[in-house]
Each structure stands twice: as C-alpha cells, then as structure tokens.
Write a structure and sequence with these properties.
mainly beta, five-stranded antiparallel beta sheet, four-stranded mixed beta sheet, 3 helices
C-alpha cells in the first residue's frame, strides 16, 4: 500500500511542476538559448517641424501623403543590432517582415527573428537599420549585403556612436530614384531589461534619413492637389548647394521622438541636382529628396524655370530653413502677376505627413 502512496505523491508533484512551467509569470529560455523577437515597426508620417519666421501655414492644415515607395522595406536589407550596456553584443538573425498584400507598403510592419540570450543581465537596446545596401556607404569597403554584414560583424564591442559615424550614404550626382533606391531608415526600441525571457515583443519607430521637397501650383489648401494657373508651367527645377552626403543615423537630440535640428557629416560637400524637361501644371511631389543641411553653414537655392503664356523665365528661391530628415518642404505657387511676370510663392515646412507651408514672392 505504501508503494501505491509513493506513486500517487510522485504523480501529484509532477503535475504541480508542469503547472508552474505553463505559468505566464515565469518565462523560460528556449532550449537552444535563443530569444524570439517580435518588433512592431512603425513608419510615422514624419517629424514635427520648427517653422521659420517667414513661414505661414495654410489655415486648414493638411496632409502630405507618404507613398508606398517611401515606406518600402525588404527582408534582404534589414539589420537589427543588439546592444548591452552601450556595447554591441549580437545581431538578430533570421529577420523577416510580415507579408505585404496588394503591392502596397503599410505604415506598420512586424519584424521577427532571434538572438542569443546574453549570459549576464544588463540594459539591452535593439536598433533597426534598413535600406543600407543601395545607398553607397562611403566608409564601408563594399555596400553589398555581405559587405555591410561584415562591417557589423567586425564591430562587436563597439558603441552605437562608433558605428553610426561610419554609416554615411553618398547622395550621387543625379536624381534620387525612389523606385530603385529605397530610403535609409533607423529606429530603436530604447533600453530595457530582458528578465531572462525567451520571447521579446517591442515597438520601434523608424525615421527616414532624408527630407523631401515639392511644389503645388495654386492649391486651395494643404489638403488639396494644385489646381494650376492658366498658362503657367514649370519646365525645370535646379537645386543648388545641396549636400552630397548624409548620415543614415542622426545623433542629434530628439524631442518627443522627433528630430528638430540637422546632423551633417563633416566631410559632406555641396552639389547641384537638375530636374529638366518637366511639364508641371498642378504639382511636383514625391520626386525630390534632400540630405540634411545646416543652412547657416551652406546656403541652398532652388531655381525654378517656368513659362507663363508662352514666355520663359527662371526665378530663384533662397531656402531659409534647415533641412531636417523626415520633414516635408512643400511650396505652393499661388499666383502670377502678368504686369511684371512675377510669381508669388508660399511654402510650408511640416511633417512628412502633415501640413503645407507658405513662402515669399518670387523677385
């Protein structure tokens, strides 16, 4: 009889142990010692803007839509770095974004992968870097997937600052073609404690490494497309004095998860990019992308060539705002004065998904 009691007691102990194993309050390591990662990746419309003293916003506010190409992400061009107490210890491997349907890129994606559970406790941070491969990184020997991977592999033990300073993209000497060149992006989960769990769920906002610039012609407000001005056509746009390089990651301070000042590589020079053979009568948006730029150090000028009722002319706009990543600089051409063939322009510097700004008259 005592023998049966022993079996019963042993069975009850095993059941109790299994019950503890299933409890959500005691997360366990995977048998292979890896942590499963689920990151909720968000691409916010854009960062908040600081208006210049000459800027006047449209009264009704508005939205500058983000296109599918401006949100493009790829399994083949994403890296997640694992920092512990400010040093790189690992990378998340086997990275996969959730599937995209209907050939559109949503503003929120799930990114999954795994990394090795750290041997010691400490403050962790996951950093997401994406769309690096197509962007001619100037301080890395090969801007291929394997070349960038080799760069990160060689940076174990490095600080985030030491890594970010080497991630500089080359703009190139011609238009940034968004269909063939995705925008570099960066984001962080912030620091956290893992608590020896085998599953990790975090959110991460991505910030684009460029600003965008565009024109509306006679838009009623920032919510609207340009209505056009009879006889007025933009035939060319020349951006003079823009930076030829930019950081993939800004180390400028953020305010409420938004950048408010530019962060420019010391080695960046200036260049001119021309958009020619245009026939713009209502709007020219989502085509011009700018690296960050501190205007007090390097002036930026936009020369607009246009025709009005058969006559051709070129006007220059002095860009008087800093160029800050993830901001949209949208100009609205509101009128043409026939007597002296002058153009009135208003402009807005706002979020990538926000209002439009208003600028001074063309002279």
């Amino acid at each position: 009889m005592k023998k049966w009691y022993s079996y019963i007691i042993l069975a009850l102990v095993c059941i109790g142990f299994a019950s503890c194993q299933d409890s959500d309050t005691v997360p366990q390591l995977q048998t292979d010692g890896r942590v499963s990662v689920h990151l909720q990746i968000a691409l916010p419309g854009g960062d908040s803007a600081q208006r210049g003293t000459t800027a006047r916003s449209f009264e009704d506010g508005g939205t500058d839509d983000t296109t599918s190409d401006q949100k493009a992400l790829s399994n083949d061009d994403v890296f997640v770095l694992v920092f512990q107490d400010g040093s790189l210890i690992d990378q998340v491997k086997g990275l996969r974004f959730d599937a995209v349907t209907d050939d559109t890129n949503p503003s929120s994606r799930t990114l999954t992968g795994t990394f090795v559970q750290p041997e010691t406790d400490g403050s962790l941070e996951l950093v997401v870097l994406t769309n690096l491969v197509q962007n001619q990184l100037v301080d890395i020997a090969s801007s291929t997937l394997s070349g960038i991977q080799a760069f990160f592999d060689g940076k174990k033990g490095s600080s985030p600052t030491a890594i970010y300073e080497s991630l500089i993209y080359q703009y190139g000497s011609s238009e940034w073609n968004i269909q063939s060149r995705r925008i570099p992006m960066w984001g962080t989960t912030g620091t956290f404690s893992l608590d020896r769990a085998n599953e990790l769920k975090k959110s991460c906002n991505l910030h684009r490494a460029v600003a965008k610039f565009g024109f509306l012609i006679n838009a009623a407000d920032a919510w609207s497309e340009g209505r056009g001005i009879d006889g007025f056509t933009i035939t060319g746009i020349r951006i003079k004095g823009m930076m030829d390089k930019g950081y993939c990651v800004s180390q400028a301070a953020m305010s409420n998860d938004h950048y408010t000042i530019p962060y420019v590589p010391a080695a960046a020079g200036t260049q001119t990019i021309t958009y020619s053979d245009l026939n713009v009568t209502t709007s020219y948006k989502d085509r011009i992308y700018l690296p960050e730029q501190a205007i007090q150090n390097h002036p930026l000028t936009i020369a607009v060539s246009y025709t009005y009722k058969g006559k051709a002319k070129t006007k220059e706009i002095t860009f008087d705002e800093n160029v800050i990543r993830n901001h949209s600089y949208l100009y609205n051409i509101t009128s043409v004065t026939p007597d002296d063939f002058d153009v009135t322009i208003s402009y807005a510097v706002e979020e990538w998904k926000s209002e439009t700004i208003n600028v001074p008259t063309f002279k």
